[in-house]
Amino acid sequence: MNFIEGEVIAINKDVDWTSFDVVNKIRYLIKKKYNIKKIKVGHAGTLDPKATGVVIVCTGKKTKQIDSYVADKKIYIAEIKLGETTPSFDRETEPDNFFSTKHITKKKVNEVIESFLGKQQQIPPMYSAIHINGKRAYEIARQGGSVEIKPREIEIFNIEILEENIPELKIKISCSKGTYIRALARDIGTKLDSGAYMTSLVRIASGNYKINEALTIEQFENKINKLNIK
Question: Mean pLDDT, the chain, as a whole number?
């Protein structure tokens, strides 16, 4: 492996790691192994701390291709809890509102899920890495602030229900870059005249990179430690 010339590494991110944590760890391991002071390392598409799965990391000259990997289609498996909402739309924050789910039928869930297919405008979560006046939106949110976040065009290519045990849903989503599955959970709850938040998220594919081929941080560390450096 030639990290200076450039490598593309699929990492299977663990829960509570940020995408920046992954980049920083990989940069540290490469610098330590090769005894170098600097190397370019970047990721192609942020994955939320509470989410797990595929994060594409580029090193060296491959960082110039990051935008092309960011643009790739993503596939997720998400678990959603109906009847409750959280400020972050996931488990990072505690439920703050509760709604009835007695009126929700499987037929209505199917209809609502199907309604999200195609191109649409989506409002990203306040708890996100979007830059607002030089600060990350999640920094403002965690300080108790609030700002307007403008809708963005996304596209959902396919969405299917894997498990349906109201008030819990498990769905598989194939979507464009920039899609927030947490925001999708919020919108599903709203369309069901209730509430919803995401309890689990796994990115199982990013472009051609699949989760079963991705390395954990521990596996990557073991792999780089075994490399013979001339």
Answer: 93
pLDDT category of residue 139 using cuts at 50, 70 and 90: confident
- DSSP SS3 for 32: helix
Per-residue pLDDT, 27: 97
CATH superfamily entry for domain 8-71+208-225: Pseudouridine synthase (3.30.2350.10)
Residues 6+ apart with CB under 8 A from 173: 75, 76, 77, 78, 156, 158, 159, 179, 181, 184
Dig out the tokens for 22 from the structure: 């992954």
Peptide bond into 167 cis (omega under 30): yes
- Show Cβ contacts of residue 19 under 8 Å, excluding neighbours closer than 6 positions: 13, 43, 45, 46, 47, 55
pLDDT, tens only, 166-198: 999 999 999 999 999 999 999 999 999 999 999
Domain 74-206 class, CATH top level: alpha beta
pLDDT at 217: 97
Helix (H) or strand (E) holding 68: helix 66-70
Measure the CA–CA gap between 6 and 22, rounded to whole angstroms: 17
Mind telling me the catalytic residues? 48
